[in-house]
Amino acid sequence: MKVVVDHNLCEGNGRCAEVAPEVFELRDDDRSHVLADAPAPGSRPRIDLAVSLCPRQAIRLIAE
Amino acid sequence: MAALTPDTVDIIDPDLYVRRGYPHDEWAVLRREAPIYRYERANTDPFWAITRHADIVNVSRQPELFHSIQRLFVTINEEGSPAPDEAILRQLLNMNPPEHGAYRAIVNRRFTPRGVQGLREQIDRITAEVLDGIVDRTECDFVTEVAARLPLAVIAEMFGIPRADWAMMFRLSNMMIGPGDAEYAGDETILETLQRARMEFFQYFSQLCEDRRQNPRDDLASVLANGLVNGAPLPIFELMSYFALLIIAGNETTRNATSGGLQAFIENPAQWARLKGDPSMAAGAAEEIVRWTSPVIQFTRKATADTNLCGVPIRAGDELALFYPSANRDEAVFDRPGVFDIGRNPNRHIAYGIGEHFCLGANLARLELQVMFRQLAERLESVESAGPLHRMRSNFVGGIKHMPIRYRMRPRA
Ligand code: HEM
Ligand code: SF4
Q: Which of the following CATH numbers is that of domain B14-409: 3.50.50.60, 3.20.20.10, 2.60.40.10, 1.10.630.10?
């Protein structure tokens, strides 16, 4: 599984980084950046939570 | 008293909010017995009362199926109250995808964590000044003298509004959000109060915009005045509504979290001792304060198609009211929801909403509350209630109008 943030949609409010800091990082461009292309399986629940919290529906999960 | 049942609870009469505060017992009955409840009473148009955390999340996450609408909250039918369409003009809160995102993007960068961190010093300074204002006394009205001042000053500062005009903004903002409250409205009807407040707003902010178009600065007023949607500037009325929204939304809500937060500490001395012992707990405290106080009582949605929630059929055109304070005491999500615990972790409250309309100012409100409670913890040597609370007459934004306290405060370190 791959995690992708669409930077045209992301508004940088940081909700994803709040709940899954090991996967998402807000940078100086006010966009969320994915830290690990293939995150550890243990992060999955937090990634799902981030997806559900994201106000702009900017996070997508792509099955490999 | 007779046992409460879904058909006997009253969750919207604004006078009840003055008398008893939030109807937590009533919401608990609805959560337990009728979480998707058709609220039909003689004094209001019918709506669905949504009271569980999971259902509010579910509705909020489908912004196309459940539209945000002009009528932001459900209320009783009162003489002189504005017809739904007049209550508020077009702005973020009643827009829907896809245009909603484009409008939000205009100011968004000023409200990201990085955007608001840039304000930390100003917020620290304004907070210290506000507390200096009561340091020489032992009694004050915590709402008007402390809680009300910080959010207003911060948003005014962000806009680039000169200090001399801050008091006027405070008054207008009260009139616009609490037009049904006699203390703010004087002898006028609700509609008259709203109209007068709106006119004064319009005059002031259209001038401000004109100025910032001629002489743009690094402030929020300039960002708005020069903002584009699909390559075109906003029409003047929408621009004015945007200003009004940012001032109002950031003002009463944070104020009420601040006063309700201190009240919670007065009632829970062990939590107060905990924060005083370790002011770095202010971040967690700010979250728990917002869960506990849930300053926004409800927002509405309207179904755009026939659907169902938990098997209950909802018809296209039906209105729903999402009761956030109820979700934030939901037994299914929170361990001991009726306990104020500043160390609560995780704290999945939805006091700032969730999904498409998630509070634009959440990062700002958090920072303001963190700074305020950190400084209060450092400077207040003692604090207690010095008289009864006076609550605002509103079933939309829950508010404490007056909160007399007795205290001892240390001068600035
Ligand atoms: C403790 C303080 C606050 C609380 C509890 C709060 C609560 C909320 C809630 C529940 C919503 C969601 C509305 C919906 O889903 O329909 C919202 C939206 C909004 N809030 Fe806040 N808010 C707070 C502070 C602020 C501040 C400081 C600002 C600063 C300007 C602000 C600006 C906004 C705006 C502009 C929206 C509309 C967003 C949209 O529709 O896209 N709020 N707020
Ligand atoms: S939650 Fe969504 S919009 Fe917010 S920073 Fe993360 S990806 Fe961007």
A: 1.10.630.10
